[in-house]
Design a protein that fits this description.
alpha+beta; Cytidine Deaminase, domain 2; Alpha-Beta Plaits; nine-stranded mixed β-sheet; five-stranded mixed β-sheet
Length: 267
Amino acid sequence: MIYKFGEKYVVFTEEVVNTLHKYKQLSYEAHESGGILLGKVYNDLIIIDQVSEPSKEDDSGRYYFFRNVKKAQRIAEQAWKESNGERLYLGEWHTHPEDVPTPSRDDRTLLKNMLKHSRINIDFLFMIIIGRDKPYMAVLNKRMVKMEPLNRIKATDGLNITIYKNKDKIYGFQVTGFLDFAPKAYNAAFSTIFVGTVNAISALTNLEDYVFEHTQGFIRFLAPDSRDEKSQTIMDIMLVQINTVLQEMKNTGMDKFVEIHYKEQNI
C-alpha cells in the first residue's frame, strides 16, 4: 500500500500489510487486536516496515483493545537500537469489527497523547484501523486540529520516477506508483529496467554500501559511493533505457502518466 502525506510518500511493506490483514475481525468471537507502527523517515519518504503484534500482556474484547504500554516501549526501543537509530515509533494500529471503520473518541485521544508525550524527533503519527473490508488510514501532526485521512496512490495516478544525482553522477533512484491501466509491455519494461539495474550493480561491482527497498508499487535504490565507475555506467545505461521507453510511450500518449524528476544533492 502506498499513500501520500504532504510531499512525502508513505509506503507499507507487503509483510506489514499481510500482518495487519490476518487480524481482521471476520468472526463474531474475534477480539480487537492492535500494536504499534515502526519504520524509517526520509526527506521525501516514510517506510512502515514493522509492526508489533498483540500478546497476552494486552487486554482485549470484541469492542476494545488496550495494549501493554511497557511492552510496546521495549519493542520500540529494541527496534531503534537494532537499526542504529533509523527505525522509529510512527503510530498505532488496531482492528474494529466494522466493514469500514472510523476512529472512536478514545482512538483520537490516544494518538494525541502519544504525539504530545513522544520523545522522537518527528511531529506526526499515524493511526491505522483495520476493518473487515477497508482500512482507515490517517495522520495527525502537531499543526492539525484532528486526524486527516491519507490519500492512497491509485493506478490512474501513474508512475513517479525520481533520479538522485550528485553533480554529474547518478547515485540512486526511487519509483513509486502503478501503470496497471497501461499495456503490460510498459509495466514489464520499467520493472526490467529498475530491478535489472539493481541486480547488475550487485553482480558486477564491489559496491556494498547501498540502500535497497522494494515492495509492490515501490522501489528505492541509493548508492552514495558514486566513485564506483561500474556502478555509474550501469546507472547511465538505466537512464538511457528509461528515456527510450518514454519516447516509445509518446506514440500512444501514455507518457503523460509517467513523471520523471531529478534531484541534485551534494553527498
